[in-house]
Amino acid sequence: MKMVVEKMGGFFFETGFPEDVQKDFRKALKRDINMMIFENSLEDTDFRHLDVITLLDHGEISFMVPDRGFMPSYLTPAKCFSVTVWYFILIVLILFMIVYEIYKRLCVKIYTEATEGISTAFTIFSYCLCVAQSRLLLNSLTGRILFIVFTFTFMILSTVFLSLMTTFFSEKVRYTPFNTHTALKDSDVIFQLMLDENESFSFMDDPSYEWLKERSSHSMYKLIKELRDTGNTMVCYSPERDEVSQIGDYWNVSEFTVKGIWKNLATIIINHGFIFFLPYSAKNHDLISVTSSYTGGLSYDFHMVKEPIMSYPFDMRLMRGSLYGDKIKAYVARFVEAGILKEIYEMNQVLQFNRIFRQFEDDKNAPPKAFNMADLRLAFIILIFGNLSSSFVFMVELLYSI
């Protein structure tokens, strides 16, 4: 839809689409007005000298960590069940062997022909895998209950396991990303702070982020600053070819030095994490792909940690006591009423994020997830009920035989 933006004192003028609107006041009043973008919102910690003109959006400061890549094929079976399910299966097997050992010792004392009613260890495992019919106390009701319960339970578990394993083998499966601060604390990820070496973010004063101080680095900020001080021509480093292209006129700096700086920058981007601000209107990504000139235009996958650090306003602020304050506020109010400011913001900020980040998966094509206890509760309820009932029946049979 074509919009007409009237001339207002030289601040906003021109007729056409929002992307064609000239914003001359950014040059004339750049000391008076401040559009809160990522770098400014994180570095400027004292807002007492600023007045909020209008609130554009809210967002979150989050951790962004490198993608851990794909799991090798021999580890994919571990993704079929959640960690809780694997622990529960292990506990059930241990309890089963303990109960079996108790049954065996009691049967040796009671039954005359004990060897005919007791299975070997090999038969027990075959019994669990539903390969061979067990001979564990088959002459008693206890053995029949155990056989039916374990057969039914392991049929469910083995069917689910084999179906998911087949699916996982047919497509690549990624390692589980870090989604909590506790997981990040236990990891070895180093985070780059795009600040001067003597500065830090205000939230790092919180005792809960004490671990971040030991795992933070300012090396990328210093490298970029060094690169800007060396010359005025944009270059890029290609990790695949190990070469620097577009080298221009540098000030007493060799190509070897420039190449070393860019190579270090590419290594940092690939291996280190970052602290990132993302608006709510663009925060719909899990795995995102970041394309950087420092890596020769190559894209690398990062995960946005779901647990945020803090919420943050995405707004337009004005220097307190500005000479043009009243006029700018009046103009901005008219833009807000017309809905133009919101569209310009979405075009310049939200669409910018969407161009940089691509959504890795959607709801329709999401890869299969591991089964948890809730998904397999029927099998485990039957298993627990069968163990309890068989134990009760066994005690009754034991007392009766005595």
Account of the 3D structure:
With 402 residues, this protein is of the alpha+beta class. Helices cover 44% and strands 16% of the residues.
Strand content: 15-25%
What distance lies between the first and last C-alpha atoms, to the nearest angstrom?
A: 92 Å
Portion of residues within helices: 40-55%
Which stretches are poorly predicted, pLDDT < 50 over at least 5 residues? 1-46, 111-136, 358-366
Order of helices and strands: EEEEHEHEHHHHHEHEHEEHEEEEHHH
Largest sheet: 8 strands, mixed
Overall shape: it is elongated
Q: Count every helix, treating DSSP H or I runs of 4 or more residues as helices.
A: 13
- Helix/strand structural class: alpha+beta
What value does the average pLDDT take?
64
List the helices and strands and how they pair.
Blueprint: E1 3-4, E2 12-13, E3 15-16, E4 22-23, H1 25-28, E5 33-35, H2 38-43, E6 50-66, H3 83-110, H4 114-117, H5 121-128, H6 141-170, H7 181-186, E7 191-192, H8 210-214, E8 216-217, H9 219-230, E9 236-238, E10 243-245, H10 255-271, E11 273-279, E12 287-291, E13 299-304, E14 310-319, H11 325-338, H12 340-356, H13 377-401
Parallel strand pairs: 7-8, 7-11
Antiparallel strand pairs: 1-3, 2-4, 5-14, 6-11, 6-13, 6-14, 9-10, 12-13
Helix pairs in contact: 3-13, 6-13, 9-10
